[in-house]
Amino acid sequence: MKSYKDLDVYNLGLELFYLSHSCSLKLPKYEMYELGSQLRRSADSVPTNIVEGYGRKRYKADFIKFLTYSWSSCLETVFHIEKINRLYPDVMPNDLELINRYNELSSKIYNFIKYVEENWKT
């Protein structure tokens, strides 16, 4: 692996960020800076923490810490999508698909954390 761009968790996280971001912009104006902002920030945090952790991969504990932040942000993003779906069902017509994809990403990040814990050589 030559770059964080070679990581499936990074690529999927970035793809889902773009999807989430565009959906958040469909919220009513009064939610753009509240719930919309929370969704955008948590969705952005998923791939961003993977990148930052990869930059510290020489230090196994730091890498794991940032991967854990990414995993937590993934869970947070699902929560925001669920709230948006309940409050504004027309904003995210494919919310279940997006939630399923984030749950898949969450599992992949979790498994990657376990891999790094058990196999990473610094």
Account of the protein in words:
By secondary structure, this protein is an all-alpha fold. It has a single domain, classed as 23S rRNA-intervening sequence (de novo design (two linked rop proteins), Up-down Bundle), CATH 1.20.1440. The chain contains 5 helices and no strands. Helix 1 runs antiparallel to helix 5, helix 3 packs antiparallel against helix 4 and helix 4 packs antiparallel against helix 5. The protein starts with 7 loop residues before the first helix and ends with a helix. It comes from Flavobacterium jejuense. InterPro entries: 23S_rRNA-intervening_sequence, 23S_rRNA_IVS_sf. This is Four helix bundle protein.
The tally of strands reads 0
Look at the structure and give the mean pLDDT. Answer: 95
Cα(first) to Cα(last) distance is 14 Å
**Compute the gyration radius: what is it?**
15 Å
Q: Major sheet, described briefly?
A: none
Give the structural class: mainly alpha
Residue windows where pLDDT falls under 50 for at least 5 positions? none
**Count of individual helical segments:** 5
- Which word captures the global form? elongated
- Count of folded domains: 1
Question: For the record, what CATH class applies?
Answer: Mainly Alpha
Per DSSP, what share of the residues sits in E-state strands of 2 or more residues? Answer: under 5%
The helical percent reads: over 70%
- Annotated CATH architecture: Up-down Bundle
Encode the helix/strand succession as letters: HHHHH
Q: Could you name the CATH topology?
A: de novo design (two linked rop proteins)
Oligomer: single chain
InterPro entries: 23S_rRNA-intervening_sequence, 23S_rRNA_IVS_sf
Pfam families: 23S_rRNA_IVP
Protein name: Four helix bundle protein
